[in-house]
Write a structure and sequence with these properties.
It is a single chain. By secondary structure, the protein is of the alpha+beta class. The protein has one domain. It has a five-stranded mixed sheet, sandwiched between helices. Helix 3 links the parallel strand 2 and strand 3. The longest helix is centred in the middle third of the chain and has 13 residues. It starts with 11 loop residues before the first helix and ends with a helix.
Length: 137
């Protein structure tokens, strides 16, 4: 992937330089969460990779966390940001996407948005969500 574009001094991205460096080769994926066995629609995380998932509300994490763990995902305590419908956020490294293109294609097919984090606007817009993913145990 190309190097991230420089940002103006004092911008939120520069002030949070560690955040930009930690996710610059990643994508944040927004997934609509359907009622019922939603997590079971996701492909298992390929061996040797870490993928975190956060939700727009804590109740969704309670409902889907166990199934996600069985599939190899780690649930992050994301900031509560109730949209007009339930969503999950998945942080995916470019390394995983490149090494497992079939897995990545399945995730993208289920998504309603993929945000490349080398782009400053996406990084600024989703800082709170990204911080939650990076501090997930």
């Amino acid at each position: 992937m190309p190097a991230p574009a420089p940002h103006a001094e004092g911008s939120p991205v520069v002030r949070s330089g560690w955040l930009a460096a930690a996710v610059e080769d990643s994508a944040l994926v927004r997934l609509p969460v359907a009622p019922g066995a939603w997590a079971e629609s996701l492909p298992p995380v390929p061996d040797g990779h870490a993928v975190t998932v956060s939700f727009s509300s804590p109740g969704l994490a309670d409902e889907h966390g166990e199934a996600l763990a069985l599939l190899g995902y780690r649930v992050a305590d994301g900031p509560e940001d109730p949209p007009d419908r339930p969503v999950a956020w998945m942080l995916v490294s470019s390394r995983l996407a490149q090494r497992h293109p079939t897995w990545w294609a399945l995730v993208r097919e289920l998504s309603e948005g993929v945000f490349r984090l080398v782009m400053g606007p996406a990084l600024r817009r989703y800082q709170a969500i990204l911080r939650a993913h990076l501090t997930a145990g």
